[in-house]
TrEMBL record:
Protein's name in the database: Cyclic nucleotide-binding domain-containing protein
Transmembrane domains' residue ranges: none
Positions of region (Disordered): 247-272
SUPFAM superfamilies in alphabetical order: cAMP-binding domain-like
Domain annotation Cyclic nucleotide-binding: ranges: 32-144
Length: 475
């Protein structure tokens, strides 16, 4: 009988010799038991059972009283905390890595602080994704109070030297950020309605900086307001749908994990694990950029509403101008509004105020998104104004010409001049052009206005949505 089979058979009885050895090792590594003597470890081992878990099977539910503690033998466990105040889900990590679950709460039986589930697919050597050793709380209390009361001193000594709780932190990767639970969709619409006026005014200033032509601050608001509401609601709604799709997508075809290669050998567990990581990365990347791509047509209509004084084409034609560059801008906008805002909010906590933390996260995400989106935004604007010209032509002869700072242009001109037959003539070398292109791309015209626009939009949208969501949950 294989080790895996023996372990599974021991789930309703004593552990096999191999499992006993493994369990003792895990107990000695556990922060709660590492100061216990060998015979005390032996006593605990004799009272533990093996429990197999399938992929995505929940071991512990947040809020339920702790009824056992576990030691992870095989596989990877995922911890997730649902903040009851904000409705935001966080991946939980500990500074000190151990293979124990619920050891800090099993004595008191307090409610579990996070949901724990298996995240590993079955391997070629086992039909289970994860395996844990389990000790029921009632059995542990019986040992401590009746059979081995001396063990309590060792546990107290272990805990005193290993306080893990202070090391807990939220570190959800950027592409794995999940949306705050929004129970009140009208909050999104209110936020979008307020932000539409702010955006329209700043957009008019950006167009003025790019073209030199003054325009109305609030043109075609009968089109802009409903479109902006649909646009922002689309970003938030699509993210919620995409998050649900990601949860469903993790339910892989476990029966197809063992695949024969051309040489007749089975893939190793390491290879399969790496393939899972790669597949999850590309799925999350697609989920992240999809809202920006989908919402580009609505954004194009909004842009066309602001440019009627510069492009006299009909709205039916005008909204398609610059759509390629605009799509790149919308991907960056969606990433900043959703994942990047949550990413910064999670990592930069200032006090206990969720509103302040939300504001700081939105501000930092707005700075990053505003800067990264300035080139595609300017290019989409120029293409909208001059649709007959190509993107390379617009970049070289319009974007660069209008974006190079005047002082740098004068300096480069002086450096590039040469004398021929007593006359000063320009000498525009390749290095000269390269410096101009780099300077225009790094710090183009309208950058500050664009960054302020994005920062303000993120703070208005996320702040308003967060405020109404908190009010809803506090009722």
């Amino acid at each position: 009988m294989s080790t895996s089979s023996a372990s599974q058979n021991s789930s309703h009885g004593s552990l096999s010799d191999v499992d006993e050895k493994s369990c003792k090792k895990l107990l000695k590594e556990c922060e709660m038991f590492h100061r216990l003597s060998a015979d005390q470890i032996e006593t605990l081992t004799k009272n533990m059972n093996y429990r197999p878990l399938q992929r995505n099977e929940v071991l512990v539910n947040q809020g339920n009283p702790v009824s056992a503690f576990y030691l992870v033998k095989d596989g990877e466990m995922y911890r997730e905390f649902l903040d009851p105040d904000t409705g935001k889900r966080h991946s939980v990590e500990f500074e000190i890595k151990t293979n124990s679950i619920n050891t800090m709460r099993v004595l008191s039986g307090d409610p579990a602080q996070s949901t724990v589930k298996c995240k590993t697919s079955p391997s070629s050597s086992s039909t289970n994704g994860c395996g844990v050793y389990e000790m029921p709380r009632q059995r542990l209390m019986d040992i401590l109070l009746n059979e081995r009361p001396d063990m309590g001193v060792g546990i107290a000594n272990s805990l005193a030297s290993h306080v893990r709780e202070v090391s807990k932190k939220y570190r959800t990767p950027l592409l794995e950020q999940r949306q705050q639970i929004i129970a009140n969709m009208p909050a999104v619409m209110i936020a979008a309605g307020v932000e539409s006026y702010y955006r329209s005014a700043l957009n008019a200033q950006i167009n003025r900086a790019l073209t030199g032509v003054k325009s109305e601050l609030f043109p075609n608001m009968h089109i802009q307001v409903p479109m902006r509401i649909a646009y922002i609601a689309g970003f938030k709604g699509l993210r919620a749908i995409m998050d649900q799709y990601d949860d469903d997508g993790e339910e892989e075809e476990d029966n197809s994990n063992v695949i024969k290669e051309g040489n007749g050998l089975q893939r190793t567990d390491t290879t399969r694990h790496q393939e899972d990581i790669n597949r999850n990365f590309w799925r999350r990347l697609g989920i992240t950029i999809a809202p920006g791509v989908i919402m580009t047509p609505l954004s194009s209509i909004l842009e066309a509403s602001n440019a009627g004084h510069l492009n006299k084409e009909s709205m039916a034609t005008r909204w398609t101008r610059g759509i390629v560059a605009r799509c790149g801008r919308e991907i960056i906008f969606g990433l900043g509004l959703n994942q990047l805002s949550d990413y910064f909010q999670e990592r930069f906590q200032f006090g206990d105020s969720p509103m302040i933390n939300n504001m700081i996260g939105s501000m930092m995400a707005g700075v990053v998104s505003g800067y990264l989106s300035h080139v595609p935004h300017n290019m989409s604007t120029y293409k909208l104004i001059e649709p007959h010209r190509s993107y390379p032509d617009l970049y070289k002869n319009v974007f660069v010409e209008r974006s190079v700072p005047p002082f740098l242009e004068r300096f480069l001109t002086r450096q590039a001049q040469s004398t021929a037959n007593g006359a000063v003539v320009p000498n525009h070398s390749g290095a000269y052009q390269a410096v101009r292109f780099i300077a225009a791309t790094i710090f183009p015209r309208g950058l500050m206005v664009r960054t302020v626009q994005i920062v303000g939009s993120f703070m208005i949208l996320n702040g308003t949505i967060n405020y109404f969501t908190l009010m809803q949950q506090q009722r």
